[in-house]
Amino acid sequence: MTDVRTDGQRKRVFIRTYGCQMNVYDSDRMADVLRPLGYAMTDTPEQADLVVLNTCHIREHASEKVYSELGRLRDAKRERRAEGRDLTIAVAGCVAQAEGEEIVRRQPAVDIVVGPQAYHRLPELLAEAERKAAIRRAGKRLPGAGVLDTDFPAESKFDHLPAPQGVRAGSAFLSIQEGCDKFCTFCVVPYTRGAEYSRPAAAVLSEAHQLVAAGAIEITLLGQNVNAYHGEAADGSTWSLARLIRALAGIDGVARIRYTTSHPRDMDDDLIAAHGTVPQLMPYLHLPVQSGSDRILEAMNRRHGRDLFLGLVDRLRSARADLALSSDFIVGFPGESDADFDDTMRLVDQVGFASAFSFKYSRRPGTPGSAMPDQVPEAVKSARLAALQALLGRQAREFNISKVGATVPVLFAETGRKPGQIVGKTPWLQSVYAEGNPRLIGHIVEARLIEGHANSLAGEIVARAYEAAA
Ligand code: 5AD
Ligand code: SF4
After folding, report:
1. CA 290 to ligand 2 centroid distance, Å
2. Using 50, 70 and 90 to split pLDDT, how confident is the model at 470?
3. Between the N and C ends of the chain, which has fewer C-beta atoms within 10 Å?
4. Cα dihedral angle (397, 400, 405, 408), rounded to 10 degrees?
5. Which of 188, 222, 328, 361 should be mutated for ligand 1, with most atoms under 8 A from CB?
6. Helix-strand-coil percent breakdown of the chain, rounded to 5?
7. Is residue 450 a part of any domain in this protein?
8. Range of weakest confidence among 41-45, 131-135, 303-307, 466-470
9. 171 occurs within a structural domain
10. Which of 149, 164, 195 is the last residue of a domain?
């Protein structure tokens, strides 16, 4: 079959993103790196010359999904070769970092394995993969397949990446911090993403200006421990996240600022105060607590107890009464008893979350938790997760219903499932769908909330919003 190309000789890349928002950001940045090499983005692997899997390693089924996807790609590669063409397969992200060579051993069809700190080197890696492919095409055998780069290079990838293009409907991610030094005993991040690193404040501000020039009105600051941010400033001082947020709020055109993910230990007074004083900082905070039991928090090495978390919630709500809180929970950490789990349920009851993510503990090789005694049986984990999710689900629904009747600014992001519908986000990160002209996408418009559900709200665009956005 001949491949009909409407874009001349351009090559195409398909990037599949697993996991968190950091990976969404990284995928955009990989696209930025590949664009000058002539790679256009495509939505399907079938059309691609290069497929990049940007992987997540946080829970075990995440990496298993990657291996089964790689099996399918190997088959596709074989078919291509039979037609005299090729398919380059790259594995990026945290599985790449954690498993390295093991990936090419398990799936020799993989051409490139690249860790999250080495994306700026993709052009060299592709060139080397191409050289190897040419040698193989000439019928010569090569020792060891695949080109690997899972170093933590001394230079920051951020100094080598081209200007960002990743603005979607007015929203952009901006990575300001990477890595983690906290070593929670369940978590692979300190091993896959390396030590905590903060980008200099000037680099962040310059990227923010670029994003605004490219159409961003909402910026979400990203980091594995984003509120541990301590970026060097031009005058030699160190900027905290709060200081950075205030500077970003001063950029003309920035209407909304968000940040994720935070650690309770790094919620300092200044940052709490910023929630009350910076109007652009949205009234929504994702603050993972993981457990409500002091004993389990200790075993998790979270470095705080339930009282510190509850105290933060009080102070945050004093700063910003309508703050919507979100969190992450793990059930079934080794040693978790019924009483420990009850502590978690009581904490959830006490706080009232607007949304939350909850997971069964999953044993990650190399982390201290995986070697702990008293692993919790799967059935117990499942029962606890179901109970917790039922409670969190009720709270999310109640939160959504509590906003019914209000007229709120919604940043519309895309068309909805039903014809004529558009979907966007409230300041509290709730999804709102409403009948509306697609030209409102990328704009903040007023909508009256008319119906609240578990995961979304129905809204009605206020007529005068049309004139404002036109
Ligand atoms: N098992 C289950 N959940 C985990 N998380 C991280 N590691 C594990 C694990 N081993 C969850 C935590 C974290 C979120 C991103 O993923 O809740 O906050
Ligand atoms: Fe993982 Fe804990 Fe670091 Fe978060 S703070 S990335 S859960 S080690």
Report:
1. 10
2. low
3. N
4. -170
5. 328
6. 40, 25, 35
7. yes
8. 466-470
9. no
10. 149
